[in-house]
Amino acid sequence: MARMIWAAALAVAVPCNAYAAEPAKSSVAPNLIDEVKALKTMDTAGKPDEALAKIDAVLARARRAKGIDRLDMIYAEASRANALFWLDRYDEALGIYHKLEAELDSGKYPMTADRAELVNNIGSLYSSLGKLEEATRYKLRALDLTAQAAGTQSIEYASALYGMALVEFRQGEPLKALPRVREALRIARSHANLTGDDLEQPAIFGLSLAALLIQAGDTASSIEPAREAAVWAETHLGEDHRVTMATLNQLGTSLSDSGLYAQAIPVIRRTLDLRVKAYPAGHTDIAFSLSALGFALDNSGHKEEALPFYERAAEIFEKSNNQNNPTIAATAIGQVARLASWRGDKAASLALREKALRIGRERAASPEHPDVIFAEVNLAKEYISNGRSADALPLLAHANEAFRKRALESNARRLAGMVFAEQIAASKGDRTGALSRTREILAPARTRLLDRATPRSEVTRLAEQYHFLFVQQARLAMSAGDPVQAFEALQLANLGDLQSAMSSLAMLRASDSSEATEVIRRYQAFAADGARLRRTLNAQVAAGKGEQAEDLNRQLAAVDANIRAEDSRLAALIPGYSIRTAVEPATLAAAQKSLGKGQALILYGQDEEGLIVLAVTPQKAVAATTPIAPRLLLDLEKRLRGSIDLGLANSGQGAFDRTAAFELYQALFPQPIREAVKGSPDLRILATGGLAALPFAALVTEAPKGADDASGALRRTHWLAETHAVSIPLAAVPLPERPQGKRALTFAGIGAPVLGQPVRLATRSAPLLRSGDTSAKALRELASLPGAADELRQMASGFSGQPSLLIGADATETAVKAAPLEQASVIAFATHGLVGGSFRDLIEPALVLTPPDSPSDLDDGLLTASEIAKLRLDADWVILSACDTSAGDGESAPTFSGLARSFVAAGARSLLLSHWPVRDDVASRLTLDTLQGARSGATRAEALRRAQLAIMKDKKVPGGAHPATWAPFVLVGN
Fold first, then answer.
1. Does the 198-312 domain belong in CATH 3.40.980.10?
2. d(CA 117, CA 760)
3. Model confidence at 521: pLDDT above 70
4. At a CB cut-off of 8 Å and minimum separation 6, what does 187 contact?
5. Which of 34, 129, 275, 562 places its Cα 20 to 30 Å from the Cα of 315?
């Protein structure tokens, strides 16, 4: 998707109307002379059709007149070529430019900045046409000519710099292009502020900087230049200007590619509205916004709403002849096909995949175009799913050979085709051989995920790409009767969720060690070199220049070795670094050895065919599948969560959808899995996607009876909590327990920060925060939690020793970091939790404390994951209670996954976390009963289960029978 949006950004990033007016010597009417001169600096980008009509009218009159200065006419013709470019009439524009270039080179005219600009624009047109060697030649010449004629601080030089960067991007060198675009943007802003001219250039360069940062892998950093470009364009050009609309689209894309879908959607919707108003119905710019909106909705869990936007975009692209992206229609149709498969409509998905390939082949310049061969792989997958392996084989043979020449070994598309071929081999009886070859095929993906040279920020994105492939490996392992490989494959398939809150090394900058800071700097420099070399290698392979790959691979191996060395130094210098960035899967034998009597580990994988489930006990490993369409599974999850929200709104008096809870149980625990865990009351669950946020304890194990809103019927319901205690381990093999000395049970309570007025859904009522701002001012808009202080005091009353309470104005970051928290056995936080990546300035997850009057690096009101990891704890429990989990609304990220790892790194043995806000009268009882149960000899998970059931069965607790009341907490860790 990012590639499509970048293409849209490129469409506004080519010609520059920077021609200067020169004195004319003529007897012709002064008005016509002035009109011709004015054409030189006309804005042809905003409304190119209107500009072209005006240019043609003036030129027609000027050609009939006598005495118009020929140089003025040349640059007026150049402006006409600019307008043709904006109308996607590239060949016409290029013909005009070459004709004018030949005339200027005739020797009659001196070299000027205007001539250099014309050379630059010719290079830009060649770049848009994909003729990069010609583009490079013209761009380098333009840079040299512009530097001589206008100087390196001129707007003409900025345009030449930008044009050269554009070519470098298309050559697969985004990191090389970045400094050129930054410098071009600086010059353009200075020029525009000083002269008031060329006002579109800062916006164009800014949106392109944002798009480049996405391509370079620094998605979070792309948001700021995109926002600045949008503000500049709207202020200086107006909202109906084409460049303004492009900047807004880029801002939406940057937010969307950063996973901030809730923030992206309104921006893209506005862009779409503006483009619909400005352009005819079938304009490709409208299609780009439609596709962008579909992508944001799709990935934020609103797939049904995304479908019509995908369909309309595909329709427009199919009818268009976009020379920048000739195969974009095939890509768009493929998105529609994917949603059809998600719905379980195999017939529609198959028909659309066939159509996508047909159109891709018709429009691509080569049958080996990457979009075409990927369409072949996708169609082959559909054929396999429909039992048509014979039809799939020739497609895979061609695609796999083409990808072998044009893609790296770790490219997910390349790997998919090879894995599908092995699925066919397995279906013909060669199960063991197919599994062995699949493991070998996926070895490069495994290496990329687990290699310490892979930046931690890339692990989640890579895991998302590879998830489907490792699920296929798990399916093959099941069919071959190999639980060892199935166990490892499902762990790798789940890495995206297990590591979802891992952030880049920016999270470690809080280190107060100058040595660590220097190591981080070196690490980041090597990481940038590695990213550049990988993209260069990709581009060389795609261009068929395999002879250069060997040298690049040697350079890459050296860079990766340096990264691993710096990584080891970081592990030694920064507490908790290794545990927060470890992703190595456990072996099945080690997992079984770690399980005690009555314990079982359950792993889930999901693809378009449904669920694959693996249950591991000390004695055996049992696998099973559930054929359920992703749409149906999501609908069940939404119904369950909707019942929770209703119960929260009505203090537990609303109905609970037990039918959905029962159907979910049947899907998540198919019969072989139920039998396998029947004797295992202690379940440890590693789930994927939306399943990770499910309250498993509230699943219903037998068909429900009675009314869903009757407390008696709810109490008589067969909940999973009746027979099984559930916990979420941090990894397949738990961390070893630290030896405990004898000490009094002590308690530390932190929370109830001084914030704004108490309201429901706090983050939605904090406009600055929702805009991406996480400053102290924005935090003060968050709602206060009036019951949090009493909750902490009630918890403290159940502990011996002298409790430590940091409440209200005392609950500051400075106080928490200075407190002797290592003396506490139990630490409770009652405050808001913010999702890492959900806000512009928040790279990692964090807990909100009382914001200081004068924020600093040491105290900005947010206790982040990296700061938590550097605390010195020795706690049996850390409790995160009363958190407003709407902070993660629409962002597809578990709120506490990163915090959990950081607390464990700091010294916590286990954590009690809330899926949703907990009632004050229930929170303290649940936590105290759980802690006391564990002190009495029960496992932590069993103690939580007993506490939950006690609330549910207590008729004195209003609404206590509703899962919204008794099932908010989940145990994470040992």
1. no
2. 57
3. no
4. 153, 154, 155, 157, 158, 161
5. 129
